[in-house]
């Protein structure tokens, strides 16, 4: 349903969003609330459910609530926390991936997290459903793969694989880590930075019925269900993360395998046989119960890439958002949160644009506010990956030091003042475009008021 603002606003502006992942959808909801006309083009014929579980930190939830008031409540209806009472603020329990989870060498699982953090994760499909709920169908176009984006005097011309064309005032490329829009923004000036970098690890992913996962994992020495609470099993060759999704009915598993060779397969997902997958992990000395959980995985190696360096998030009227700008390793569970933060800041800025010639200013302000923070997430996620692989300098396999580090390392991500970002973005945009700040009267009227 169109908002009041949308009905009042006469479009000089038409935004094309490319890609309906978490980033593109969050932006669409934001633009809807700001009354900015948009069309979202998605290559797939329907929403992709690939990816299974996703956990959102407090910053991500605050950003989404700012974009779509009431989101937190909806999210609460689809997300799952730890099952053990009193572990609401525990992000993960730290264990070792080796046979016996480290218990044989005296390690007892310890939780890490923070008071500001609440443990929740959701099935990606459920998350996309609640974000999409308010977007009118006519703004969404599925089965529209963008092949080229060209900039003209009037904006952008978008060409699709099916031979169709569309015009818009600008385009936001939220087309993911392999998206084509990154080439449009960086290709001319930084061709070497267009493609994402292989991070030297791939994952297998599984969703396991929780009852089966609990049976396989059994209870720990304190009598708690091992599969019920979120767990990080660390090791130098393999890291396994498990956490509950689907209101606790399913257990999500991500199994990382370190790989010192370049990724040579032509696709980023490589199907293998089930036997190869299981031996790939079991030969590393991984606990047999975890290998049993892995039997539920799709035998597919999913190569992880990131964008460690992105010198700008925009070029002219084309702007990057989400993984196309800052794809990251998932070791801080922060990638989706950064997509939503992008969407919050960009939607507020585009809501202030009153003519297309202000678009580049909006993109430049967005770039200045969002890029330093999002790129820091990319860099520190690599560090977090090293910590979980027991090879961070000065920490190594000292589990006490690892837990101490994990208790501190996310605070700057989770506690960040997002409203300050929005205020700074809006005020910078206003000062660069000569727009007044609301509530601020022109100097002339002030003088007159004082004189009267
Ligand atoms: C194993 C793993 C675990 C993760 N866990 C977490 C977590 O717990 N918490 C967290 O915050 N983050 C997590 N992340 C990161 C998070 O999933 C991503 O940051 C986020 O989903 C990216 O969203 P996006 O919208 O930018 O891109 P995507 O989700 O990749 O969406 C891009 C969309 O664009 C479409 N598209 C691509 N090309 C075109 C084209 N040419 N034309 C039209 N459409 C196109 C695609 O079909 C797709 O729908 C994880 C990532 C991985 C790999």
From TrEMBL:
<protein>
    <recommendedName>
        <fullName>FAD-binding domain-containing protein</fullName>
    </recommendedName>
</protein>
<dbReference type="GO" id="GO:0016491">
    <property type="term" value="F:oxidoreductase activity"/>
</dbReference>
<dbReference type="InterPro" id="IPR036188">
    <property type="entry name" value="FAD/NAD-bd_sf"/>
</dbReference>
<dbReference type="Pfam" id="PF01494">
    <property type="entry name" value="FAD_binding_3"/>
</dbReference>
<comment type="pathway">
    <text>Secondary metabolite biosynthesis.</text>
</comment>
<keyword id="KW-0274">FAD</keyword>
<comment type="similarity">
    <text>Belongs to the paxM FAD-dependent monooxygenase family.</text>
</comment>
<keyword id="KW-0560">Oxidoreductase</keyword>
<dbReference type="InterPro" id="IPR002938">
    <property type="entry name" value="FAD-bd"/>
</dbReference>
<dbReference type="GO" id="GO:0044550">
    <property type="term" value="P:secondary metabolite biosynthetic process"/>
</dbReference>
<feature type="domain" description="FAD-binding">
    <location>
        <begin position="14"/>
        <end position="380"/>
    </location>
</feature>
<dbReference type="GO" id="GO:0071949">
    <property type="term" value="F:FAD binding"/>
</dbReference>
<keyword id="KW-0285">Flavoprotein</keyword>
<keyword id="KW-0472">Membrane</keyword>
<keyword id="KW-1133">Transmembrane helix</keyword>
<dbReference type="InterPro" id="IPR051104">
    <property type="entry name" value="FAD_monoxygenase"/>
</dbReference>
<feature type="transmembrane region" description="Helical">
    <location>
        <begin position="12"/>
        <end position="32"/>
    </location>
</feature>
<keyword id="KW-0812">Transmembrane</keyword>
